[in-house]
Write a structure and sequence with these properties.
By secondary structure, the chain is an alpha+beta fold. 29% of the residues lie in helices and 21% in strands. Strands 1-2-3-4 form a 4-stranded antiparallel β-sheet. The longest helix is centred in the middle third of the chain and has 27 residues.
Length: 316
């Protein structure tokens, strides 16, 4: 038996090298030959672009052919980007409130003079309202006043709740930073109590931008209301107003709409502050209490030596 084993080992010693190499299986094939065709259909042969190809050497016809094969559009010789103007940058022909409105008597000479001037400008406002009705058939000044008051309340409630998304629905892009100014880290409590006088339209204007068809409309509404406002800082200290006292507020709010846009809406655009309006009280700013100054140390008293004392001189 031992001789047979040694015989076999001797024969293997003289065997070719290929016979002695271990058998290797193909690892690129799937262990399960089922669905072989379906697995092959997952891979698509794509003609990769030649990155070393110089586009400057190609003729225009060859370049056009290659771009059509790749589904690319030809480059344009000009660089233009579309832009959309959703709101104007200011108030055109702003309304000038009569001096002493809400306080002065109608019989006063100044008020009578301003009333005559307003009657002269009323014709242009009527023409602007007629222009607005050409885009918005159901427009009515009486119905618009109630709509404007609703927009006014919703905008201030969104500001008090710090709801940025909702605020953008009720104010234009110009008025948005003015609304949000100095409201960071502030707690605002605002409440609409009542209308002392019904809101009314006092001014209306229309203008076109860039083209004659791109028309914007602005309507100024007078509000005389009673409100409550209290503003607290981040430490809970009252900065402005009061939650107990109510104040009468007279405001002239400008509403704007992109009339040429069929999906345009009326939004708050600006607030008119007359020159004769009294200045507002400044808010109480939060400041750091200064450190108490250290009292200066008392200087030590200097004791005079007896030798330094000057003797008294007797009268002769």
């Amino acid at each position: 038996m031992a001789n047979s084993i040694w015989f076999k080992l001797g024969t293997l010693r003289h065997a070719p090298v290929a016979f002695l190499q271990p058998y290797r299986t193909t690892t690129t094939k799937h262990f399960n030959p089922k669905y072989k065709k379906e697995r092959a259909a997952k891979y698509l042969k794509i003609d990769l672009p030649n990155l070393n190809e110089d586009a400057g050497d190609l003729s225009p016809e060859k370049m056009r052919q290659k771009m059509k094969e790749r589904g690319m559009l030809p480059p344009r010789p000009w660089i233009e980007r579309p832009f959309y103007i959703s709101a104007t940058g200011g108030i055109f022909e702003a309304y000038i409130p009569p001096e002493g409105d809400g306080k002065a008597s109608i019989v006063s000479a100044t008020r009578a003079k301003q009333t005559v001037q307003l009657l002269e400008k009323k014709s242009r406002s009527m023409m602007a309202i007629r222009k607005i009705k050409s885009f918005e058939e159901d427009f009515s000044t009486n119905d618009f006043c109630s709509q404007a008051q609703n927009i006014y309340i919703k905008a201030h409630e969104s500001l008090a709740n710090h709801d940025k998304a909702s605020l953008q629905l009720y104010v234009t892009e110009k008025a948005y930073p003015e609304f949000r100014h100095n409201t960071w880290d502030k707690t605002i409590h605002w409440k609409f109590l009542e209308s002392l006088e019904p809101p009314r339209v006092v001014h209306a204007r229309c203008t076109d931008i860039i083209s004659k068809e791109n028309i914007f409309g602005q309507v100024t509404v007078r509000f005389h209301t009673r409100q409550q406002l209290a503003v607290y800082d981040r430490f809970g200290r009252l900065l402005h107003g009061s939650e107990i006292l109510a104040k009468d507020v007279l405001e002239y709010i400008v509403f704007e709409k992109h009339l040429a846009n069929m999906y345009g809406t009326w939004r708050i655009h600006a607030k008119i502050i007359p020159d004769w309006a009294p200045p507002k009280d400044p808010s109480k700013l939060t400041k750091i209490r200064p450190e108490p100054e250290a009292e200066p140390e008392p200087e030590p008293t200097k004791l005079l030596d007896k030798s330094e004392e000057t003797p008294a001189i007797a009268d002769k």
